[in-house]
């Protein structure tokens, strides 16, 4: 279940669930490695691009970075990775013009990576449409303690449209971002996922909080998906939706906290679901 149901907490709540990882440092770098073919862009930097890419990779290891996001990692990817020997690295999506040039290297295990292309691009200030610019979401397991609970970090890496011309500004603001599916006190519904199925609803009483949940997963169309959810409140009431399976996982908010929302991605099915906790 750990790979498909992600528990997400504000930093202050982590100590209640994973005391062994309650503090520490993480060394992070983001770097444009200028991996366009030399014939397209020389970058006005002396030396061969293949050699320079190997030098960059060696420096990433030398300086002990825990997580590195790189952009423009195109045609010299193999040279970079030959020396940037961090234990977990995303695979290339290809050179120019096929790949996005976005990769993540990490000392922590990479659980999942998603690549998303921007809906709009502009060549007003350069060849921004030459490659499929966009962003990646890479989920890292920074703690995997069976007794205390797992802790994950979502790392975003993106390459936006360059320039300040009108077309560039339009491209950078063209892609919207979905929000968690919750119903607010004023009746506003923020939805995620598809429109099928039968809705289940429970109106919370005054001072009643959603404090625990059970998620069950199963296979559908050769993919592991969330099949059901059961919510339990501080008043002992329950709400169920979906079909239970034999593979389920329990989630309980720490004392003084409550579940206040979900985190996931837009789509017509639910593959992964995260819970957001807040202090009450």
TrEMBL record:
One of its GO terms (cellular component) is cytoplasm. It comes from the Eukaryota. Residues 163-279 form the Jacalin-type lectin domain. Keywords: Signal. Gene3D superfamilies: Endonuclease/exonuclease/phosphatase, Jacalin-like lectin domain. Residues 1-20 form the signal peptide. One of its GO terms (molecular function) is sphingomyelin phosphodiesterase activity. PANTHER family: SPHINGOMYELINASE DDB_G0288017 (PTHR16320:SF1), SPHINGOMYELINASE FAMILY MEMBER (PTHR16320). This is Jacalin-type lectin domain-containing protein. It comes from Verticillium longisporum (Verticillium dahliae var. longisporum). The lineage of its organism: Eukaryota, Fungi, Dikarya, Ascomycota, Pezizomycotina.
